[in-house]
Amino acid sequence: MTGNLSRRPLVTIVLPVYNAGSAVTVALQAIDSLTYPATEVVIINDASTDDTLKYVTAFVDARDSWKVLDLQRNAGPAVARNIGLTHASGEFVWFADWDDQWSREIVSVLVDAARDGRADMSMVAGTWRLPSGRDVGLTDGSSRKLVVTGFDAVDLLLRGVIRGYLWNKLFRRDVLGVDPFPDIRMQEDLSAVASVLPRCRTVVLLPDRLYHHVKRPGSVSSSSGGGLDHLEVALLHVEAAVESLPSEKRSRCSLDHYRVAFYQLGRVGTALRLGGPEIASDVIREFKAEVTLVKIARASIISPKTGMRALLVKAFGRAYPATRSLLIAVRNQIKKSV
User: Fold this and answer.
1) Distance (Å, rounded) from C-alpha 147 to C-alpha 311?
2) Whole-model pTM above 0.70?
3) So where are the chain's domains?
4) 235, 293, 324, 335: which sits with the fewest CB atoms below 10 Å from its CB?
C-alpha cells in the first residue's frame, strides 16, 4: 500500500444480513481482512429469526468503526440498504452480500480507480461462482480499463456491458442521494444503478475479477407475480435515466436492446422459472404482441444472441417452453460428448 494512509478516503461498507446464522462470521472475517485501511462497516440485521444477531454482535463488539442496526420487522434488502445509508459517513460506499466471496484487494482497487479517474463510480468484474468454488460465468467485466462519462455509462447499461449488480461497484456517497433503492425485493439494485449513473461525472470500469457472486439453490424467494412487477419497476427507472440524457446521447437501438433482452425476455424467463403454465402462456402472448420484428432487429445489432432468443419466442409462441427445454437438452448433450 502506497501513499499516506491517513489521507485515504473513508469507505462505508453496507452489509444487510438475514437468517445467515453462524455463516455470517465468514463474511465478517472477509470484511475484516480487506487490505483497505479506512473503512466503517454498517451491518443491518433484517429481523432475522435465527441466531444471526448473536454472531454479529459478538464479532462487532471490539470494533469501534462497526455498527449494527437491528430492524424489528423484515423489510427486505432495499429498505435495509436505505437505512444503512443513513448511518454512512464515508466518502464512498460499497455494498456487499454476506453469502458471496471477494478478493481482499477489492476495496483498495475500487478506491484507487475512483481517485485516479476522479470518478463517482468505479467497478470491477464479477464472476458467477458455484458453492463448490468453480466459476461458471463473468459479469460486468470489460476486457480493458474504460473511463466514461455517466451519460455514456447509461448506454453501456442498456447494452448489458454494465449490469445492475451492486457488489462489484463503489459509489461516491453524494451521487446515491436519499433512499436510492425502491421498496421491492428483486431488481432494486438495477433500479438504483440506473438512477445513479446519469448523476455520475465519470465512471471507471476495470477488468479485474475481484468479486464472486455465489449461486445457491433456492435463492429466488419472490413469487412470479412479484418478479414480473419488479421488472416493470426497473424498466421505469431505466427509461427515466434515458430521458434524463441529452438527446444526442440517446440510442434507440440501445434502449430497444434493453427492453427486449432484460425486460421482455426477462419476463418470459421469470414466468417460466417461477410461474405456472398459465402465467407463462400469458407472458409469451404479450411478448408476441409487443415485441415487433423491428425492435428485434435493433436489439440484434447490439446482441445477435438476444435477437435469436427473441425470434424463437416470437416464432414458437406457446411451444417456446418445450422448444427451449429441447435446445437446452441438446446443448448439454453436446457438452458431455466434447
Assistant:
1) 34
2) yes
3) 5-214, 251-337
4) 335
